[in-house]
Amino acid sequence: MQKAPLTRSHTHQFDEGNPLAQKRILFATILTAVMMLLEVIGGWIYNSMALLADGWHMSSHMLALGLAYFAYR
């Protein structure tokens, strides 16, 4: 007895994307970058180590959000 050949094809589509999520992550990235710059500039002007430290700390958040943004592309 012979087996019938498999005629169905099996595919995956991994690049569906989510435009709304991508737009929101871009907005959050830009907002984080603006706040980071304001904190670093304010820390520099007022000689505040707390503002400088938090501003540079926010750069890691901005990096993570930027990576998430490009993950949707």
Can you tell me about this structure?
The protein has 73 residues and is an all-alpha fold. The protein has one domain. The protein contains 2 helices and no strands. The chain has helices spanning 19-45, 49-71. Helix 1 packs antiparallel against helix 2. It starts with 18 loop residues before the first helix and ends with a helix.
Produce the secondary structure layout.
Layout: H1 19-45, H2 49-71
Overall structural domain count? 1
The count of β-strands is 0
Proportion of residues in helical segments? 55-70%
Low-confidence runs: none
CA distance, first residue to last residue: 50 Å
Tally of alpha and pi helices: 2
**Globular, elongated, flat, extended or rod-shaped: what is the shape?**
rod-shaped
Largest sheet: none
Calculate Rg over CA atoms. 23 Å
Q: How much beta, percentage-wise? A: under 5%
Calculate the mean pLDDT score and round it: 87
**Which class best fits the helix and strand makeup?**
mainly alpha
**SSE order, one letter for each helix or strand:** HH
